[in-house]
Amino acid sequence: MIVKKVPPELMRSTYHQTGVYMEEILARNMYKDIKNMNREQMKSFLKRIYEDGYKKALEDHPASSSGPDLEKLESEISAISGIGEKRLEDIMEVIKRNV
């Protein structure tokens, strides 16, 4: 069995309790295909879903893939009233250790 990407015509919009329309990505025929998958097919299917989501996240948020701009962060923190040079050094040290 080969699982294909869900074509747009099989996607249905549903009204979520938050009042937002969401795309329903698991149409009835896809559900039936998933139920009939063996272990290897399910592993391949889930890997493809993960990879597609990862690629989309990188496309949607390209700056986050490289991490925060530490120089910009330092300059903005230093502009805060009450943050002196020593406190800024301490804050930046903590940020650098955790990034």
How is this structure best described in words?
- This protein is mainly α.
- It is built from four helices and two strands, in the order ββαααα.
- A two-stranded antiparallel sheet has the order 1-2.
- Helix 3 packs antiparallel against helix 4.
Key terms for this structure?
99 residues; mainly alpha; 3 domains; two-stranded antiparallel sheet; 4 helices
Explain briefly what this protein structure is.
The chain is mostly helical and about 100 residues long. The chain has 3 domains: about 1-35, no CATH class; about 40-65; about 70-99.
Uncertain regions spanning at least 5 consecutive residues: none
Counted beta strands: 2
Query: What's the overall geometry?
Result: rod-shaped
Q: N- to C-terminal separation?
A: 43 Å
Radius of gyration: 23 Å
Describe the sheet with the most strands: 2 strands, antiparallel
Q: How many distinct helices?
A: 4
Secondary structure elements and their pairing?
Blueprint (H helix, E strand, L loop, with lengths): L11 E4 L5 E4 L3 H8 L3 H22 L9 H9 L6 H14 L1
Antiparallel strand pairs: 1-2
